[in-house]
Amino acid sequence: MSIKIKNVSYTYAEKTPFETTALKNISLEIEEGSFWVILGKTGSGKTTLIQTLNGLIIPKDGEVIVDDIIIKDRKEDIKKVREKIGIVFQYPESQFFLPTVYEEILYAPKNFNKNISKTELINILKLVGLNESFLNRNPFSLSGGEMRKIAIASVLSYDPKYIIFDEPTVGLDYEGRRKIWNIIKNLRKIGKTIIIVTHWIDELISFKPNVLHIHNNEISFIGNFDDFILLGEDELKKKNITFSEKLKLYYCSLKNNIKLEKLFQY
Ligand SMILES: Nc1ncnc2c1ncn2[C@@H]1O[C@H](COP(=O)(O)OP(=O)(O)O)[C@@H](O)[C@H]1O
Ligand SMILES: [Mg+2]
Predict the structure, then answer these.
(1) What are the residue boundaries of the structural domains of the chain, listed by start?
(2) What is the tens place of the pLDDT at every residue in 3-33?
(3) Architecture of the CATH domain 2-264
(4) pLDDT by residue (tens digit) across 217-235?
(5) What is the whole-number distance in angstroms between the Cα of residue 92 and the centre of ligand 2?
(6) Residue 220 and which of 24, 157, 185, 229 are 20 to 30 A apart at CA?
(7) Ligand showing the shortest atom-to-Cα distance for residue 42
(8) CB pairs under 8 A, 24+ apart, for 221-227?
(9) In this structure, how many other beta carbons lie within 10 angstroms of the beta carbon of residue 97?
(10) Pocket test for ligand 1, best of 47, 57, 58 (most atoms within 8 A of CB)
């Protein structure tokens, strides 16, 4: 099973003065169980691409196929796809609208006619590093990091097999970011397919995800993590990737075939 993106192009406000090209001929296959990172500077089309995966945007050109369901305008198909693909949007906490964490988490599964037991609910909270005591809290009374965890829990609540994170660590401090990476580690352990949009590439060294890099709304690199890093400082700078000290060290370890993996655990 996989998500297949075939020759997808997308333009906003076509044939108006506001016409903006967001995606040009993107093709990619995301196998179940894999881990992908999507990189590219602001405006390169990352969020648009993610939105094509669950039918929020339906491209006229090209095709998206999720486990053999071709995403077209058919409502029942889109619902099926949305149950398989959970998206944690940028600043997901801005979408909270219910008075308790409990109701917030149960909102999505209710929509999919899924019941979840108290034990399942507590397990989900555990996966995101929280406990039962949060259930009666008002979501708006939580810290930024806790809100982000609840937003992730509400996506986990209906057990999607593909989970997409759009810049999940943006606006969090070091500790908050570390906790999010821990959640992602937990989700890998239970076999979830993860797609993540982020700028913090050096925090991904221990995960070694597959890399899709988008430049000017087109694919500029697709392949494995180490091959991407081995492009080297000049090439990566051209791709708007900050070549941090940590990345430099990792690059050198790859070049010289020295195993330094332990150094890069986040
Ligand atoms: N709702 C929208 N209406 C019009 N243009 C949009 C809309 N959303 C995004 N765009 C434009 O499409 C391009 C890609 O945007 P986006 O997918 O948000 O990129 P990224 O997530 O990589 O920053 C940008 O030029 C952006 O301004
Ligand atoms: Mg974006």
Answers:
(1) 2-264
(2) 999 999 999 999 999 999 999 999 999 999 9
(3) 3-Layer(aba) Sandwich (3.40)
(4) 999 999 999 999 999 999 9
(5) 13
(6) 185
(7) 1
(8) 222/28, 225/37, 226/254
(9) 10
(10) 47
